[in-house]
Amino acid sequence: MKLSARNMLPGKVVAVTKGSTTAHVKVELASGLTIMSAITNEAVDDLALKVGDTVSAVIKSSDVMIGK
Amino acid sequence: MKLSARNMLPGKVVAVTKGSTTAHVKVELASGLTIMSAITNEAVDDLALKVGDTVSAVIKSSDVMIGK
Amino acid sequence: MKLSARNMLPGKVVAVTKGSTTAHVKVELASGLTIMSAITNEAVDDLALKVGDTVSAVIKSSDVMIGK
Amino acid sequence: MKLSARNMLPGKVVAVTKGSTTAHVKVELASGLTIMSAITNEAVDDLALKVGDTVSAVIKSSDVMIGK
Amino acid sequence: MKLSARNMLPGKVVAVTKGSTTAHVKVELASGLTIMSAITNEAVDDLALKVGDTVSAVIKSSDVMIGK
Amino acid sequence: MKLSARNMLPGKVVAVTKGSTTAHVKVELASGLTIMSAITNEAVDDLALKVGDTVSAVIKSSDVMIGK
Q1: Beta bridge partners of F39
Q2: ipTM of the complex model
Q3: Nearest residue, CB atoms, B22 vs list C1, C2, C22
Q4: Contact status, residue D36 vs residue D59, Cβ threshold 8 Å
Q5: Chain E residues closer than 8 Å to F47 by CB
Q6: Is Heme included in the keywords of this UniProt record (chains A, B, C, D, E, F) (predicted)?
Q7: Domain D7-59, CATH number (from 2.70.70.10, 2.40.50.100, 3.40.50.1820, 3.40.50.150)
Q8: Which end of chain C is more exposed for a tag (fewer CB within 10 A), N or C?
C-alpha cells in the first residue's frame, strides 16, 4: 500500500516504552538523529515492535512545522 | 522559547512552493533525506523562508506514525 | 508495510479536486458514507489517484474525536 | 453547533478503555467497520461515554490519509 | 452534540480568506487575541462563515503544544 | 527560534497532571479562559513545567476547527 503521507524516514527502533494506553517509540534515523513517536500500545503489539527493528517514521506534511 | 514538541530535525530549505493559501516547503536533513512541510503562506512570509535557509523541521511525537 | 495508524477504512474514490497545493479526495466507504481527505497535490499524482480507485482512508486514533 | 470538520461517521460505542490520562474508544460504524479513537479520560467522563452509546466519529479532512 | 475536543474558545470572526481549496479564518477571542484556523472552503460555505459571526475555535488537547 | 505555527496564546500554567506516558497541562489564558494541552511526560520534564509558569499555548492553524 502506498500512502499519501509525504514523509517516510527510514531508521531503527532504539527504545519502546509502553504506558497504560500510549507507547513512546524512539527511532534512530540514518543520520544518527533520533525521532520520537507516540502511538497506541495496540499498534506496538500489532506491529510486534521491538528494539533493532528496521522501520519508517511516517509523517504527513501538514504535521511538519518549520522553525527558523 | 523551548517547545514541548519532541522532534526538531535540523536541515536546509531546498524548495518553497506557495499555493493560494498553503505553501509546501522541502527541507534537506543532515542525512540527505528530504522532508516536506505544508504551512500557511503567512508563515512563509513571517519567517522570510527562502532556499538555503538553515531551519528545523518541528514535529510532535503524536504526529509521527511507525511503518514496519 | 504495516502502519501504526489504527484506522483503515476501505472504499472507492468518488471525487478528486485539486487546488493550487492541496487536493480534496472524497471516498465512498462500504457503508455508503463518504469521507473527505485533504492531501497534497503531489500525493494525488504519486498515487495516481482517480475516480473509481479502490483505496483505504487511513486515520490515526488520536485524530478521531467523539461527538455525542 | 455545526463544526468545520468535514467527517462525521455515525456509530455505536463498543469499547471504552481508560489509561492513566488517555482513553481508547472503539466505535462500530453502520457498515460494521470499527474505528478507534484516542481521547482524554476527562472527555470520556464529560460525555459520560459508555458501551452502547450512539455517537459520531468526528475527523478533520486534513487528518485523513489515503492508502492505495 | 458535545465533542471530546477539550478546547472551545469563544470569539468573533474578523477575517475569512478563501484559497483554491483551503480557507484561512481569523477569530478574535474575548481577550482580544486572534487565533487563525485553516479549514476547507467547503466548511466555510457549509457554516456560511462571515465576518462578525460568533463562533468557537475548537482544538483537541493533543494539538496544543506548550512553549516556555 | 520563530515557528511556522500561527497561534501562540500567552498564559499561566494552572495544572500539570502526569499519566504513564502522556501529561495534561492546563493553561489559563489572559482572558481567564483555560486551554488544555496533552504532551509527553518527557516534554514536561524537559521544560521543567510547573504551576505558575508563564508559557505559550502553541497551535498550528490546521489544528484549529471552527464551530458555529
Answers
A1: F23
A2: 0.95
A3: C22
A4: no
A5: 66, 68
A6: no
A7: 2.40.50.100
A8: N
